[in-house]
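Figure 2 data, in text form.
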Amino acid sequence: MKKIELHCHTNISDCPLTIDQVMELAVEQKIGHLAITNHDTTKGLREAVRKGIEYGIEVITGIEISAFDFDRGRRVHILGYFVEPGHEAIETLCEPIVEKRHRASEEMVHRLIQSGYSITWERCLKLAKGGTGVYKQHIMHALIESQYTDSIYGPLYKTLFNRGQNGEKPGIAFIPMEYVDAKDAVDAVCQAGGVPVLAHPGQYGNFEMVSDLVEAGLQGIEVWHPLHDEKHEEEARRLAIKHGLIMTGGSDFHEEYGEQPVQLGSKCPGVETLAALHARKALNNNRRNIGV
């Protein structure tokens, strides 16, 4: 039976692998259904669908929107499945995020250079070539090349990008990002014909927001994720049953740019999840067509 991978990134956001390289890896891992869920963009999704046909893989057009729970002061990530690439609702909401992230990264690199680190903005741009902009992972990659560290996520990352919580001093390269309201992210996915799903709620402590997101149109919750322990999975299942949400899962694949080593196709859900997503997509499209 072919595996189902519902959370995967490419070099269009913060994974070093191209669409073709991800497809080749998917074939190796016997994945038959693959959702491309790059951060805050639908760039490359039409190409991915065409490539998927060549590789014999169903590509699900996806996105992962970087959002915020302003009532509780927590980050929230919203996955969208079967979204229409380039839809106005998605573009209007996400383009400012992409621009702010890129500008913030440039300022981060400038601060590091001022502090004596021998890296360049030009090298970071080259590492991010083909994507929507420079991420912290690209900056860390440049620092690895300059032999300041041997890992993306390690002591140096925590020192440079520390958020300054719990009385700690912020890192020299930390720049706060302005994110969109998570409820607006859910709405944008719905407008784009997609199925909105709450990503890895255990990672950011988002369980308390589920009821609010359901009112905004949330239709699924990510149960299986590399950063979820048994308690996280149990709570996600409980909320899924309570609110009638689709239970999803995925590896959140970033290759070497990931927070921990994961294999594409790990944490994959069963066929019932894929069937539920397809059914919800059809229902959403019917409602859009009749103006509900």
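Caption note: The longest helix spans residues 88-114.
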